[in-house]
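Handout, section B. The chain below has 249 residues.
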Amino acid sequence: MNKLLFNHLPRPTVPILTRTSDKAWVVSSTEFNIRRIFCVGRNYREHALEMGANPDREVPFFFMKPADAAVVCSNATTSVPYPPMTSSLHHEGELIVAIGKDGLRISVEDAMDHVYGYALGCDLTRRDLQSEAKKSGRPWDAAKGFDASCPMSPIIPKGELGALKEESELLLKVNGTIRQQSPIGNMIYSIPEIIHHVSQLFCLRSGDLILTGTPAGVSDLNVGDQVSISCGDLMPCEFVVGEAEKNEG
């Protein structure tokens, strides 16, 4: 058997939560290993408007983040470093769908069979780099897929959580002040529809994550800001924006 050249490379995983007999959430002995991170763009009407886009229902578009962009945020002291090469770091609070069953060209009717569970996360964005890329017709990779650009909470299996309620509010606060707030039922494309459309482009695999879009209210973050994202009974995603990382190597 061939050996790996780089045995030290991380294998990104996210804790899975399970309920005890007294209904408390505890960390399971099994972790969810991340394969890919897909993100759907402009999936809330008001956010599409604030970004200068057409909010009418159009075919959804997707971009990706590296699997190791995920940072597990299990408490408010988790530090996420301010990234280099930007002066405009924006928050985008999102519901995350964790895929637990492979599928290609999945129908809307069968889509929920492929869902393992849910989490909450933040699509951190170098907004100045994204604006420049849009003007030049270039990819968004540097604006969206940088290190630690996907803070997220532990995953709760859908069987332990039950059905998500459309009236459940996705809420993002910075230093205790609400900046983003919307019922998840306001998504332009529902979770089954998102899964259907992603699976037309890629064969979804167990371990994939899908960020389902952000409501209006995206704005700048600064070093020291405390971020909290909540929605229904899901574990909150909480973190503090830390200092930029020092050079390595």
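Note. The chain has a mean pLDDT of 93. Compare this with the example in section A.
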